[in-house]
Amino acid sequence: MRKLVFALIAALSVALTGCSAFDSEPIKPKIIGTGNLQYEAKSGTWFVVVDSTQYTVAQTQSFEPVEEMLVTIFTSPRKTGVQAVIGHQSVEQIEDLYHRNYTVLIVLAVILLGIVLVSIHENAKRKSTEVPVVNADV
User: Fold this and answer.
1) pLDDT tens digit string along 80-93?
2) What is the pTM of this model?
3) Which of 47, 74, 81, 99 has the most C-beta neighbours closer than 10 Å?
4) CB within 8 A of 64, min separation 6: which ones?
């Protein structure tokens, strides 16, 4: 039983490794432009001026905002408001920043489930083969 479960886990792991079904959806960014990040103390908001238009930044991707930092701002159907990423970025680079693949997590969950099933099966098998001790001093 143990060998069968591990063989199935190995086969499933190999099959899922190249699977794109567990990739995150593309963010499809529409780049507004590149500019320097600025802070408005009154309202506590960050903004960027591109082509004399001020865009309030709703979210920054995994960085602490610093005033005058060069950022690329964009909108996306998957995100609310204007997003910012550090530096001058292309659409492909922004897609790469937001891309996630959950295959590893799923494979780890399957392996953990297999280990639990083997443990339960071995424990049940051990209990069913135990011979009760009978006192022979009758």
Assistant:
1) 899 999 999 999 99
2) 0.59
3) 74
4) none
The 8-class DSSP code of residue 24 comes to P
Rounded distance, CA 105 to CA 112, Å? 10
The three-state secondary structure class of 31 is: strand
- What are the structure tokens assigned to 49, written together? 């001026």
Long-range contacts at 112-115 (CB < 8 A, ≥ 24 apart): 114/5, 114/6, 114/8, 114/9
E strands, the chain, are 30-40, 45-50, 53-60, 70-75, 82-86
Q: Give the type of residue at 63.
A: F
d(Cα 64, Cα 93) in Å, to the nearest integer? 19
At 135, which amino acid appears? N
